[in-house]
Design goal:
Helices cover 50% and strands 17% of the residues. The protein has a single domain, classed as 3-Layer(aba) Sandwich (Rossmann fold), CATH 3.40.50. The chain has 218 residues and is of the alpha/beta class. Strand 4 and strand 5 form a beta hairpin. The protein has nine helices and eight strands.
Length: 218
């Protein structure tokens, strides 16, 4: 059993790194951010405010989430519907960050994440994997990068998917999300004390992967 935790703010390169590492090591990749996006999507579809606990809590029991893998790609299934194609929309990002501040939501997702990690070797990426979800992970990494570069990466990603949004909008939203994620009361974004911190500013994805693998193989 091997568990690897990769944390960091939005746009630091967590997902790309986690997918690469999982493939190189031949183990499972669990995209925890997609799970919270799934909750945010569900809440919005129900017409509720992700920021109002009183509106979100009554919906939690109705969220039947399954994580399945199709040809190596993770899919988020909610109540029998594959919501994967919809959860990368820009408005879902803030909804995910907002709804994840609610302790009951995080507890529900963490329970599912831990159950996966208990069954198989895997790589998990998120914001509190090493500090809260899997405090005993074999390896913990915390990625960071200059905010301007993180926003540029995310803007390019969104533009490539056909999303019409300005760089400034992405930077402003990312700044707001950074603050929200790092200042929530329950399991905030932070580096675990024993995490290896890596600044990915100026690094290509393959360079970051090589650096992380060198820490694992040493």
């Amino acid at each position: 059993m091997l568990t690897i935790a990769i944390d960091g703010p939005s746009g630091a390169g967590k997902s790309t790194l986690a997918k690469t590492i999982a493939k190189k090591l031949g183990i499972l990749y669990l995209d925890t951010g997609a799970m919270y996006r799934g909750v945010g999507y569900y809440v919005l579809q129900k017409g509720a405010d992700p920021g109002k606990e009183s509106e979100v809590l009554p919906l939690l029991d109705g969220i039947k989430m399954d994580i399945v893998y199709d040809e190596g790609s993770q899919k988020v299934i909610i109540c029998g519907e594959d919501v994967t194609p919809y959860i990368r929309e820009h408005n879902i990002s803030m909804a995910a960050s907002t709804v994840s501040k609610i302790p009951a939501v995080r507890l529900k997702m963490v329970e599912l994440q831990r159950s996966v990690a208990a069954r198989t070797s895997c790589v998990l990426d998120g914001r509190d994997i090493g500090s809260y979800v899997l405090p005993h992970a074999n390896y913990k990494f915390f990625l960071t990068a200059d905010p301007a570069e993180r926003a540029r990466r995310r803007h390019e990603e969104l533009t490539a998917r056909g999303v019409s949004i300005s760089y400034k909008e992405v930077l402003d939203d990312m700044t707001a999300r950074d603050y929200q994620d790092s200042h929530r009361d329950f399991a905030p974004l932070n580096a675990a004390e024993d995490a290896i911190v890596i600044d990915t500013t100026g690094l290509l994805p393959e360079q970051t992967a090589e650096l992380v693998l060198s820490k694992i193989y040493r």
